[in-house]
Each structure stands twice: as structure tokens, then as C-alpha cells.
């Protein structure tokens, strides 16, 4: 029995999962790069101060803090001061803002970057909640044009379509527009933030529940009725009619915001395998959003696969001067789980193409030579690194999902041949050594 | 000016460095996989207890510890107890041992794995020393055969050769054999460990310096003379003669150890671009090595590029039952730095193949369509996400290293054409839209 386990909420990845996760990252990255997004990396740890008060909301409370070291720790203990000086990043957005503030002079004026990497949150252990998980973001910094929204929306939808998700719906709204709508319905200023939180649940829980929650927050009955009434009818309207109704309710003040959304829609003329719809009640959780917000869902998937929005103020809090920014994040872990359950990864993935078995210890060097030849032919050739009977070596190959074993025994060596064993059928075939690589490649591609 | 920077000793990677580091990882991984090694991942954090007393030596002292949270932290402060419950991994070997102990039942009996990922050490800030850096390991667990040594040696040398390093020298020794040699020279038992540390410096500092150090440790003069005398003459002997001389000095007790080394040599009949040599004075720093040890250097490189050895006891300390293990680690950061300085990365790496410029805001949706078409043709097409004059858009493309810009203005649209601009020469060429992808691919591969 193992005495030590991975810490609670943390995961080890076995080789099969490692390969699938790698495939997922590779496929998403290829799409991002086809849109001109450039990869970056930031440290796992940032100075604690970077994270404090940056709109991370609940996430800030879930930070893993790193203990000061040596004399600094002693001083902090004596003075009852902050014990940590660093923290593990809880998302990739705050580090991006810090990165941009640090390197602005070395980066293009309009900076399109992607970042795929782990983040850490001290969540309560719970099914499907991890304390270390991968995030997968594209962002455009330095552009306030609606084309930036269109660009991240199209890149994200294209990536999800490339992964095999069909019937995508990208829901689009605007944070300030939702603010107007809520205020126009008669919600007092001090309750607006809370109303956002409740409204965000509209597509997850029953309308009655949201109603009770809004009333409990002290929102006037007339405002609750007005909002929920519209929420119910909005679903039956087409996009243009929804926009028109929001326009009617919000009045002239909302004109600029509506124009912005219409431009985003106009600049994304078509989505691969899906559509872009205006949803006046989309709210999104993060405090730092300042403009358009979006989420993607797919047919037969009960949760959203990606979310994002415009956050024009966050970079400014770290660099001193405002920088418009918009981003979109694919829910890597839920996409991975879903694709794994639905067998959406490429089939036939295996540890190696062939195991070079060693018929007797004295022939080890000959086996190494054979492995080298097959690798030179472009094959992945595993060598059995030990002393064991052939059946045990074949069994190991099967455990690893390797389809063939190759052996060059004394007889084979004498006549320049190799014997291949197809492990599933237990059939052997002896082929001339000079043709071994070609023979196996031919077999594998069948 | 940026108010916040990355923490001292930590690095941000700009897109160019990100691409090169990704290329390095990809190329090493391909070789490891061609040898049948399977990728795994373990958490960045482990329970603190996993790291304590596991032969990490100095590295343990450099651990970043993660503060307990909530009520547990309060309790720890009140009781003046340990304040941390987790720690960032300082290498990939201790986590591998923990991983194997946890998952033994799910893994092949002989487990060949690679792991490429970051580790963290609270080093003093110093040129070329980072607090977060990538390690890159192959290991074979579950085999005590010298073929396991041969396998990791060949995989590592093949990876370094594939990266472009020539004239590789893999130095091979045995930890217990070095112990016999040192004791046979007359070093008292309690000084053996210290002598290893001094001997390890023989290829880095002058022999006179090592001599002073050994004398200062209290090693008898006759023992110092015997060791340094052999160290000097050993260089002039060929491999077999060196082995014979060690045999003579160590006596019959060393027979098994010498046989083990000879078998490793026999099983690695040839190395790509290099040779395997027996070096009786190779010592290696880590305490957990129990058998053969090795290091690789390359022509015109003043430091070793990779190091490893057999550690048959480490896994047992975590799983309760002994598991033979041998590993080899490529010094990722020094290899990266060297390859970058010597321009050994693939040339022509760029953010995208083409920038789709937007001649006027009203044509944005048309530009998106053009980008989609070129991407479907297999090109990486960046779209300028904003409103700017064409010269500014072209300038941005040049900043990002993008060689061409494509524009479809009203005239082009009317006649089904696209205008490409080669940014370096400022020459424009208008081509039929249906041929645009093929035209550009043709141009790029010139």
C-alpha cells in the first residue's frame, strides 16, 4: 500500500490521460496559432501584491500563499506581519495584465496572445473540482474595436468546432447594457451587483427560485416582475427583436452600447458549426468585465464550454495607464472530461509501435541495434530493459498497448531477418531485416 | 513604468522564447517517445512530508512551502506548529517515486516514463540561476538490469544528437565502485561522503585546489596522493585499461560492480555522435544514487548537458518495498540557453504566415471571410483586430515577423481578387481569390 498520495484535490496523470490531454492542448493551440495568437508563459508564482484587489472576487480567497523564507519569515512571525510573499496564480488573466505592464515596450501595440497552463485554487474537495487545473485563454490587448471581440469569439468557436463539438451557441451580452436594463427596471443602485449574481443563474435554476432570491435581496416587486417577464419573453424573440426591445427599455443612453454589440455581430458573419445570439440576461461572474461578455455552449452539453468578455480596466490597475482588453477562456477540464467520456480523442494512441524483445541476455546489443534501425525508419521502438522470458516481454507490450513485438534471435541474425509477432493474434512473421521498417509501417497503417 | 514585475528569480517568456522552448520540448519528447517512454504528469504541489528526508540534499532546504489555510493555519500559529502543509516540487524524481508508489498497480511492471515540467527552488538570485525552471527526465522503474542503464543513456544521447550536439561523451561510473576506490586508497569511513564532494570538482577546478580541500577535510596525505595520482594517469589510459586498474586497486570485492559496468558498455554498442567512456572519478551530487552514474558533455561545451544514475532505494522509502530505478535528466535550461546563443533552433519561426489587413471598417466582415478561407487552406492568418490606417497595420505585421499582408478592398472584392503585400520588399501583387491560398503557400515555401 502506498504510504503517500497526491495531496487532496490534486491529480496524477497516467500515460493514457497524459497523451489525451496533450492532444487536446495541441489541437487548441493549432487553431489559436492559425488566428495569429502567440503563446506566452508567466511564472506559476507572482508577488502576492499582484493578486490583491484585482477583481478576482472569490478566487482571491482561494489563493495558495507561499511562506516567506529564512530571516524574512522570522521577522514576519515576530511582527505578526504577512507570512507569505508569493502566491500561486489563480487564473491567467491577472498574470497577463502584470506581464503586459512589465513588457509593454517589447510587445506589439495590439497584442494577441494565448496561454495554456495550470492555475491553483484552494477549493473545497468536491466531485469534479480540482485544486490544480489547466486554463486555456486567448486575449487581445490594446484594441477597443468590436473586431477584437469578433476575433476571440471566432477563434474560440473554431477551436471548439475543430475538437468535434457541433451546434455551438455563442451567447453575447454587454455588462454595462445589462446594468442599464436592470436600473431601467427599477432596481436601486446599491442592489445592482447582487441582481447580476441572481440573474446569472437564470439558465441554471428555475425562474421561481431566481424570483425568490431577488425579492430576498430587497429588489422591489415591480422590478422583479419586469425583469423576469422580459427574461421569459426574450427567449421567444429573434436576435434583432431582442436588441430592439432592450433599446426600447434602456432608452437613448444605451445607443452606444447597442452599436458596439451590433458591430460585433456584423464582424462575425458566420461561425463554424454554430451561431452567435444576443442574450440580454447573460451576466458572467467576474467583477472585472467592463463591456461585451460571452459564453459558448454546444448541442447536448448541459454547461458552457467557454466564457469571456471585455475588461478594459484590469491592465490599468497594474500598469498605471488604461489598456483595452478582451479575452475568451475555454473550460479545459470540462472539455477534456466530456471528450474523454464521449471518446472524442484520436483512436489508436499507444505507447510505441513495436517492442524489441530480447531473446537472451547475450543478444542485448543486437536488440539495441535493431531498435536503432527501426527508429531511424521513423518508428517508435520500445526496448525491453531487463532480463525476462519472452512471454513476459510480450505481456508487457500488451499492457502498454504496443501492437507488435520484434525479435532477432540467433537464427534470424544468421540469415539477416527479423521476426515480428502481432500480439493480438499471436501470429509470427519473419521478414528480411532490410525490409523490416517498411513492413511494419505498412502493417501499422492498415 | 511597470509597477509590478515578475518575482525575483522568475521569468516571463515572450512569444519568441515561448516558441523556441516549445520546439525544444517537442524535439526531446519525440525522441523519448521513439524509445517507448510514456509521458506522465504529477501535481506541482506535494504533501510536505513527501519531500522530507528523501535524499534531495541541499534541494530540500530550497523548497517553497505553501501556507496552511483557514482554521488549520490558526491552529498551527497558536501551537507554533509547522505552518505549511504542501510544498512545490524541487525535482521530478521524488514526485516520480511518490507517483509510482501510489499507482503501482496501474502501471507496467517495467515502467519507462518521461516527464518534462517546471520545478521550483528558492535559490539565491544569481546569473543563470532561476527559481522556476524546467526539468526533463527519463526513468526506468522496476528493472535492475544493466539494459535499463543502456536504455536511458541511449535515449538521452539520441535526444542531444537530434538537437544538434556533436561529439558527445557519456561518462560512466559506479557510486559503490567509487566508494571502494576511495576506501582502498586509505580514506577513513567517516570522510568518504566528503571526499565524493571534493572529487566531483576534479573536472571543474585545478587538481591542486582539490588536493588542498581533501587535506583540509583531514584525509591522510597518502590517500590524497594515491587518489590524485590515479586521477591524473587515468586520463591517459583507454577504457579497458582504466577498468583493469580500478579492478587491481579495489580487489575481488568490486567484481560484481565492474561486471555491471561492463554490461552497460556492452549493451550500448554505439552512440549517435559520440562515445561512452568509463570515468572512475565521476561522483555526481545527489545522495540517492546507489549504482551506476553518468553524465554527458559535448564538444565545445564547457559544462555537462545531462546527468543521471541508478537510485534503487528512493522508491522504497515511499512505497515500503524496494523498486530498482535508473534515470537520466537533460539540463533543459542550459541546453536551451546554449541552443539559443548558437542559433540552433529552426529558422523562419513567425507569429503567422499572413496578416489580413482591413482597408476600411465597413469591410471588416469581408476581411474575416478572407481570413477564414486562408486558414481553411492551411495558413496561419492573423486578422488585425482594430481600426487603423493600412501603414499602421503593415507595421504591426512587421513587428510580429509576419512576412505578408493580404487586403481585399472594394476593387478587389468586385473582381474576386486579393492583394498581397510582401512586407520586406513593399511589393504588391494581386491574385485571383480562388488561387490566394495556393499562391501564398507557394511563396512561403520558397
- The general outline of chain A is elongated
Q: And the CATH topology of the largest domain in chain A?
A: BirA Bifunctional Protein, domain 2
- The total domain count of chain A is 3
Number of strands of chain A: 16
Give a structural overview:
2 copies of one chain form a homodimer. Chain A has 18 helices and 16 strands. The model of chain A has no long low-confidence stretch (mean pLDDT 92). Chain A has 446 residues and is an alpha+beta fold. Chain A folds into 3 domains: 8-165 and 305-349, 2-Layer Sandwich (BirA Bifunctional Protein, domain 2), CATH 3.30.930.10; 167-275; 354-444, Anticodon-binding domain (Rossmann fold, 3-Layer(aba) Sandwich), CATH 3.40.50. The interface between A and B is large, with 103 and 102 residues.
